[in-house]
Amino acid sequence: AWAHETRDLATGRGAMRAATSKLSVPAAGGRLMGLIRGLDKAPSSLGLMQRAQQELTLFALESKAFSPGYFRGEFLSGARGALGHLAESGMSVASTANAEEGLLEQNLGVLFGDATASLDEAGLELRWQLEEVTDAVLGPLDLTYGVRRSQGVPEKEWASARASYLGHTLIFRGEQRRVLANDGATLGADVHLVAKQTVLLCQKADGSVLAGHFEQEAHHTLRLEAELVHEGAGRGVQQLRFDAERGWLISDLNLGLDGNWIASKLPEAN
Questions:
Q1: Could you give the CA distance from residue 119 to residue 270 in angstroms, rounded to a whole number?
Q2: Degrees (nearest 5) of the Cα angle 184, 106, 156?
Q3: First CA to last CA across the chain, in angstroms?
Q4: What is the value of pTM for the model shown?
Q5: Which end of the chain is less congested by CB atoms within 10 angstroms, N or C?
């Protein structure tokens, strides 16, 4: 019903912006509404070098840490489900207050929580209906070696710098710039999803629709994050194992947190 109702209200981004500009929508709520509407255009395809790096990383990870074919099979199915779950339950204050019971990384949980709380105080609510996720494509992978988010985001006080190596990132410790083998790694994986969806802004009191946007092909980039722990001797990627107990977290949606990369606060090594 929402989809048909929204087609009458607004079928383009400009129409929804025009409608919401007449309303007193809190800034945090407006930001979230923009994020869940999706990207302005489809993400660019991976370049030749990015594809080569992706294949090398997949080969290393799927030989030990994950089963063969995992990232183009089970992982993409899980990403579809994660987007659907986020749309279904991520728009309420109660669900985001607890960072979606472990589904959202803390920073993204704060973004959703602050936005839904501000809308709630204004007597408004967002409804995000995914009718169908029609496509899911694996995007760039980033293996940040030497740190796990659950052990603390690297700060300059204890991590000296970062450096890129064969598409991966190394976090250095101390003046000798050591990468500690037992620190494991953080794996970030982008998934580009296409969805048929409707986004509505409603009055909370009576559910009346104030503005809406229907999209036949909404483009989303979901960043999923996992931790890898070391098993056995050695420092190589092949000694890393997926921390299945912690599982995958959604760490960003449509670059709302600029990727929410764990090493973003560290300078590049000289």
A1: 45
A2: 55
A3: 57
A4: 0.86
A5: C
3-state helix, strand, coil in the chain (%, to 5): 35, 30, 30
Q: Please name the residue that has the structure tokens 């986004």.
A: 199
Tens-level pLDDT at each residue, the chain (270 residues): 333 333 344 445 555 665 566 667 899 999 999 999 999 999 998 899 889 889 988 988 887 789 999 999 999 999 999 999 999 887 776 555 555 456 889 899 999 999 999 999 999 999 999 999 999 999 999 988 888 888 877 666 555 678 887 778 888 776 655 665 567 889 999 999 999 999 999 999 999 999 999 999 999 999 999 999 887 666 566 678 899 999 999 999 999 999 999 888 777 876
Cα–Cα nearest to 111, from 191, 187, 24, 223: 223
Position 157, amino acid: E
Q: Which residues contact 262 (CB under 8 A, 6 or more apart)?
A: 144, 147, 149, 153, 154, 186, 188, 225
